[in-house]
C-alpha cells in the first residue's frame, strides 16, 4: 500500500502529497455530513462514485475552456490535481428555490427563480459557513474584486453548461456549490475551479418526478442514498460495471 504524506483532511476528502511538485492526490471518502457536521454517516461507495462523476464533469468543463485543478483520475478513489491556493469563499448558484433559500425567504421548494442567483459563503466550519457579501470579501482580503469577477463569470459558464448537460439526461440542476483556487504558474496567477462537482454539492432532481438524486436524501432521511448517486452516474454513462468497486486508502506518513 502506498505511503504518502497527508496534507489536509476534510469531511469528504483527503489531500495527499502528489508525485510531482505542485500536485496533490485527492482521495474521496464515503463519509457523509450534513448541517455543519451535526449529522454524520457513511454512504457506501460514495467516494468511488463522486470520483468518477467529478472526473467526468471537470473534464467536460475543461473541454469548453473552464480552467480547473483536475489533471486525471488515478484509480477508483483518487485523482491527481494541481495544488492551488484555495480562496475561502463558496459560491452557490441557485436556479430553483430549495434548501436554505426556501427557508430564508419563505419560497416554496421547487419554485423556479426569475434568474440564476449567486450567493457567497465564507468557508469556516467554526462559524457555520456564514453568508457574506462582496463588500465583506473584498474588505477582508479574501479575494480581490478582479478575482471575484472571474469567479462569478466562471460560475455562470459552469451553470449554463451543466444545466444543459443534466437536462439532456433528465435531471434538473436545482443549485450547486463551487470552490475556486489561485493557480500560480511562474509569476502569473489565474483563478481555476477546484474541489469537486458531484451529488455531494449539487441538488439534482428528476425532471419528470422531482425525485431527489443527491445528498438531500441523506440530509432528509429519504433512504436509497447510494442508489441515487448510482443513478446519476448511470445516466452520465460512467457507472463502473458491476457497481462501485472499493479500494483501500493509502497509508499516511506524518
Automatic annotation (TrEMBL):
<keyword id="KW-0547">Nucleotide-binding</keyword>
<dbReference type="InterPro" id="IPR033934">
    <property type="entry name" value="SAICAR_synt_PurC"/>
</dbReference>
<comment type="similarity">
    <text>Belongs to the SAICAR synthetase family.</text>
</comment>
<protein>
    <recommendedName>
        <fullName>Phosphoribosylaminoimidazole-succinocarboxamide synthase</fullName>
        <ecNumber>6.3.2.6</ecNumber>
    </recommendedName>
</protein>
<dbReference type="InterPro" id="IPR018236">
    <property type="entry name" value="SAICAR_synthetase_CS"/>
</dbReference>
<keyword id="KW-0436">Ligase</keyword>
<dbReference type="InterPro" id="IPR050089">
    <property type="entry name" value="SAICAR_synthetase"/>
</dbReference>
<keyword id="KW-0658">Purine biosynthesis</keyword>
<dbReference type="InterPro" id="IPR001636">
    <property type="entry name" value="SAICAR_synth"/>
</dbReference>
<dbReference type="InterPro" id="IPR028923">
    <property type="entry name" value="SAICAR_synt/ADE2_N"/>
</dbReference>
<feature type="domain" description="SAICAR synthetase/ADE2 N-terminal">
    <location>
        <begin position="7"/>
        <end position="235"/>
    </location>
</feature>
<comment type="pathway">
    <text>Purine metabolism; IMP biosynthesis via de novo pathway; 5-amino-1-(5-phospho-D-ribosyl)imidazole-4-carboxamide from 5-amino-1-(5-phospho-D-ribosyl)imidazole-4-carboxylate: step 1/2.</text>
</comment>
<dbReference type="Pfam" id="PF01259">
    <property type="entry name" value="SAICAR_synt"/>
</dbReference>
<keyword id="KW-0067">ATP-binding</keyword>
<dbReference type="GO" id="GO:0004639">
    <property type="term" value="F:phosphoribosylaminoimidazolesuccinocarboxamide synthase activity"/>
</dbReference>
Amino acid at each position: 500500500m502506498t505511503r504518502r504524506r497527508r496534507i489536509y483532511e476534510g469531511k469528504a476528502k483527503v489531500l495527499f502529497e502528489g508525485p510531482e511538485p505542485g500536485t496533490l492526490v485527492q482521495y474521496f471518502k464515503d463519509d457523509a455530513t450534513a448541517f455543519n457536521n451535526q449529522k454524520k454517516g457513511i454512504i457506501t461507495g460514495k467516494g468511488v462514485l463522486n470520483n468518477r462523476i467529478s472526473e467526468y464533469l471537470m473534464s467536460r468543463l475543461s473541454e469548453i475552456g473552464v480552467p480547473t485543478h483536475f489533471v486525471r483520475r488515478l484509480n477508483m478513489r483518487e485523482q491527481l490535481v494541481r495544488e492551488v491556493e484555495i480562496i475561502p469563499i463558496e459560491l452557490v448558484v441557485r436556479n430553483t428555490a430549495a434548501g436554505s433559500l426556501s427557508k430564508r425567504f419563505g419560497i416554496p421548494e421547487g419554485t423556479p427563480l426569475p434568474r440564476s442567483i449567486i450567493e457567497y459563503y465564507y468557508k469556516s466550519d467554526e462559524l457555520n459557513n456564514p453568508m457574506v457579501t462582496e463588500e465583506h470579501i473584498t474588505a477582508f482580503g479574501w479575494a480581490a474584486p478582479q478575482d471575484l469577477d472571474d469567479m462569478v463569470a466562471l460560475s455562470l459558464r459552469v451553470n449554463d453548461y451543466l444545466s444543459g448537460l443534466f437536462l439532456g439526461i433528465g435531471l434538473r440542476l436545482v443549485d450547486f456549490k463551487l470552490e475556486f483556487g489561485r493557480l500560480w504558474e511562474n509569476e502569473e496567477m489565474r483563478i481555476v475551479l477546484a474541489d469537486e462537482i458531484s451529488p455531494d454539492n449539487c441538488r439534482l432532481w428528476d425532471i419528470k418526478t422531482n425525485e431527489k438524486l443527491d445528498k438531500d436524501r441523506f440530509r432528509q432521511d429519504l433512504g436509497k442514498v447510494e442508489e441515487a448517486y448510482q443513478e446519476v452516474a448511470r445516466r452520465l454513462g460512467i457507472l463502473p460495471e458491476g457497481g462501485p468497486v472499493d479500494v483501500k486508502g493509502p497509508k499516511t506518513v506524518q
